Structure formats: structure tokens, C-alpha cells
Structure prediction request, 96 residues.
Amino acid sequence: MVEMDPKQFDEINKKLDMVLRLLSLNFVKDLKSVRAKVEALSSCGFQPKEIAILLNKEPNHIHQILHKLRTNEASLGEETTESQRGGLNEQRGQDD
Prediction:
């Protein structure tokens, strides 16, 4: 097996990082809002700090967006559960 010296490894790592950034930016280029871009990049496994760097935003701004997304997901889940219960009760002819 051919061994790579640390300098070669660092150079390859930098190039791979650049390719990853370019692919990521291409992935979200058609999304209009920062929120949609953050959501897409987060769903791909990027950390808030990485998303901030990719989108040229402050990390705190990215954290706020992610918090709002999580809060909205939680409230949507509760609404869906409530509406499902209501629908079942209506089908049975029962009230809570």
C-alpha cells in the first residue's frame, strides 16, 4: 500500500472540501429563501457552523432558523395528532 505524506493528505482534503462546498451551493442555488437553504443543508447533515460558512451568514442566525424549523415541526406534529383524533371521533360519532 502506498503511504501518503501529511502534506499530500492535507492538499487532497482541501480539494475535497472545496468540491463539497461547490456541490452544496449548487444543491441550494434555486431555493429562494435562506430558511429553505438552511433546511436543505441541515437535512443533508451539515452542522450549523458549516451552513453559516456556506451561506455567508452568522452562525447565530443559522441556529435561530434551525430552532424555528424545529419548533414549527413540533407544533405541526401536535396539530396533525389533534386533527386525526378529531376525525376519528367524528367518524365514531363521539365527542371528547
Q: What stands out?
A: The chain has a mean pLDDT of 85. The chain has four helices and no strands. Residues 59-92 form the longest helix (34 residues).
